[in-house]
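Margin note from the TA: students keep mixing up input and output lines. Inputs are the sequences; the output is the structure of the whole complex. Example:
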Amino acid sequence: MTPSSSTPASNFWQLHPQVQQWIWAQQWPALREIQELAIPPILAGDRDVIVTAATAQGKTEAAFLPICSRLVDQPHTGANTGVQVIGIGPLKALINDQNRRLSALGDSLGITVCPWHGDIDSGRKKRFLQQPSGVLLITPESLEALFVLRGSQLPQLFASLAYIVIDEMHSFIGLERGRQLQSLMHRVDGLVERRIPRIGLSATLGDMSLAADFLRPGAGEAVQLVQSFAKGDPLKLQLRGYRQAAEDSDSIDQEAGPGPEAIAIADHLFAQLRGDKNLVFINSRQQVEQYADILRQLATDHGVPNEFLPHHGSLSKGLRAEAETALKGDAPITVICTMTLEMGIDVGAVQSIAQIGSPSSVASTRQRLGRSGRRPGEPAVLRVYVTVPAMTPFTSPVDALYPDLVQGMAILNLLLEGWYEPPIVGQLHLSTLIHQLLSQIAQQGGMRAEQSWRHFCEQGPFAEVDQTLFAKLLRCLGDRDLIQQSQDGLLLLGLTGERLVNHYSFYTAFSTTEEYRLTTAGQSLGTLPTTMPILPEMGLIFAGRRWLVESVDSDQQVIEVSPAQMDGQAPSFGGSSAFVHDRIRQTMLAIYRGTDIPAYLEAKAQQLLQEARTHFADCGLDQGYLVPEEEQVLLFPWRGSLVMNTLLVLLLDNGLKASLEGVALKVKGVSPEELQAALQALLPLGPANPLRLAGTVRNKRSEKYDWVLSEELLCHNYAARFFDAQATWQTLLELLGKDPRI
DNA sequence: GACCTGCTGCGGCGTG
């Protein structure tokens, strides 16, 4: 908002004169709508606020212009006032980026901005603690470390705290890390004995009331919502279809290598993206490596410099920095990545986004698209490349429906509608409660059982845990020697608990697997999970290059490689699939039933959609939900991961040989009539008892401290996370209300 | 067939 274009009514004039001057100096044509709207509620400094607007609308500034206005007005701003704002970010790279942007503003106002995470050197941290003031930009893990290691200093450090800002809030909601963050904010409020206003920032919140409940558990209705409906950049979408080549019976050995369709996709990328800046998102690290390898090979074949670099979570910091720096430079570059470049990291102006394989959520697709279209007047460009199985023979009717193609379409359709997945709520997060209990005991030196239940459950974010469940949890902690009780009833850390808390791996709420470090000539390339068999003399594709494995040191967990032009495979990094929401599957069903041909489908994809619709009708799925095969029946409920998982366990519990087959459930050894009768028999029982159902599942451990839980508590935790008995019963009612098949 | 995130203190060594 420059003086010439600001109206007398503009909120711009409420900002501190020094902040106004800084804005003029930036020569912005005007404040964005979201920046105008956010000024009054944040300046008030007495309430929680959610700021939501499309990507690249300047949400960070929307929060910090009024925040800094208020800080400048405070009489004691300057050295030694203590931290006035805690800014929490999900990624180190994001914190570095925010630090760069906010330091410029802070410098002109005399407000210190300090980034704090694992890569910041300890000298800088020490200096900050000697003269704390201004804005502290920090990860949840580093804040956790402050609680454990400097618990006694914190009341003073945070005495002048005025705001907590959460950047990319959607990336926390519903996860262990999100519950940890809620707990940490609650513990900050407890330290200073005040309610510190919380400011949440995000572009992709699917459900505002759930987001508000996340920001202030139990009091979400009082959170003020600041929302801009200003359109982001115009969109240009294309979905391209590719068919896998028919399996050549002589080439079974080559199954791990890229097929001709991957080569065709790479050819298209090579032709379209070279000479400009782009991001290519792929759903697995293994495929990132495969495509980086093919594209490097193409550059060699054409005798041109390679413009394609890989970027994923298992690459070393140095190699990732190389790709990020290249993106910020002037030369053309395309980075092939997983979700590592999905969020706010400023990668400069990117011409287009490519996505290989259907994405699994609308929200992450929106985030990825937000990386593009930052050049004035240019649209955001997204090309989605989907592969369908070879026509003859289909190994399963599920394949013939081309579910990847139709899921990709469903996600694009929902994206165009402006819908995003709401967070999954109602989880117990017992693993994270254990984590926070240990941390709080370490911070205070000891704690009473009654007091800790009140703090974490009655008044804090673990509201789903009642006193009975909490008492059982404490007993599990005692049994494993994580805690012990002193004679006067104080909870103290046990020997095992001490050992856990005193190791640096304690600060994360999520679990990680052990990994080998991959090095060449003393330089780190990245990491591989220890589950992957690696032998000397093997060829390996990593960091988009080809290597020969020289040695494997299983004590030090180091693999030494040397450059070599030889055949090799991109490694498998493991991992589990993402949750798919009900609405995506329901939209897929509508697409199969419809006749509409969206404009974003390229010619080949249009033809494949017609085939998918024909196969859909040929199976009888336009009328029913069961497809009989030899010796087995496929069940298509068209629901998301939670219902599919519940239904699967429910069928298994009823003695049926069920398994998950992509978007369907496969049941062996029954006729359609028998399966329908079995489903019919479930109806009078009402929604299944999730606790009892969880008892039939064997591998229930998935979170960091699940190993501490008794079978009973593990069932509680699993049922809350992986089952939706109510929605599953609803699904059965709807399915059985109609003809199962022709 | 399958995502990602994050982490302290201190000893040892080399350099200015």
